[in-house]
Amino acid sequence: MAIILAGVLLALFVGNVALGSTSNSAILGNVGEMLLLLSASIVFVIGILKKEADAKAAAQEPQPRVDDVQGGR
Fold first, then answer.
1. DSSP state letters, 51-63
2. What is the reported pTM?
3. How many Cα atoms within 13 Å fall on the side-chain side of residue 13?
4. What is the CA radius of gyration of the chain?
5. 3-state DSSP: the chain helix, strand, coil percent, rounded to 5?
6. Which among 3, 57, 61, 67 could disulfide-bond with 47, CB atoms 3.0 to 4.6 Å apart, if both were Cys?
7. CA 14 to CA 26: how far, in whole Å?
8. If pLDDT is split at 50, 70 and 90, which confidence band does 61 have?
9. How far apart are CA 39 and CA 8, in angstroms?
10. What is the mean predicted confidence (pLDDT) over 53-59?
11. What is the dihedral of CA 16, 17, 19, 25, to 10 degrees?
12. Alpha-carbon gap, residue 7 to 16, rounded angstroms
């Protein structure tokens, strides 16, 4: 979810920059662009850290042994 939100915020930033460069009428000013890019970066880092924590938790779960799965002797 956080990665999607970061993508949306980044798309808004890119759209604002593209609008400002083509028609010289950007919606956000310099500070607004900075805050938008900062929030996109923060949300992206949060999403990556959550995915890393989930992967680490999944790696620590005990994996079934081959004998358990195949009904070993």
1. HHHHHHHHHHSPP
2. 0.73
3. 18
4. 22
5. 80, 0, 20
6. 3
7. 11
8. confident
9. 11
10. 89
11. 90
12. 14
